Amino acid sequence: SSSVASPTTEDETLERAGIRRARGVVAALTDDKDNLFIVVSARQLNPSLRIIAKGVDVQAGEKLKRAGADSVVNPAFIGGVRMVSEMIRPQVVEFLDLMLRDKDKNLRIEEVVVPKGSPLVGKPIFEAQIRKHTNLLVVAVREPPTVDAQPGRFVYNPGAEMRIVENMALIVLGETENVQKLRSSIAGGFETTG
Hints:
8 helices; alpha/beta
């Protein structure tokens, strides 16, 4: 049987773990009630955290989100989706698995947020020449949050004319070394030589 720690003990444990300076928390215990308790405690101690919670029961997902989780992962649901994907698109699944395990190329799908003041702001994607400078493929963008703090929409396979805006997330495919190059260059722009 599962027993939840007292609020004082739980808060002390989170404090010792550095909850106030943490950027994120993963609540992945085996019981939804325990994860719910961690989410509530962590959110109260650090309102700016990104909290990911494991939800065993499908109905627990909404409760965990209402309690303060930013995202809820249901392992059984993900396992089911994986099995269906293996059945209907095995080549895609194998490609993604190989991409994540490839130790030579380190190919990844990553996100890079365009900061305020970046020289790329206002430029169309083709003019930013991200592919030329970093050999990264922009596969999608997420528009910045709306005025009422709603998440921006995803635009898949954005056209060359799409303008880059502040706080837009560029979803790129490429080698990790090139992703780091984009991250280190995006605030000041790419060096042009010759």
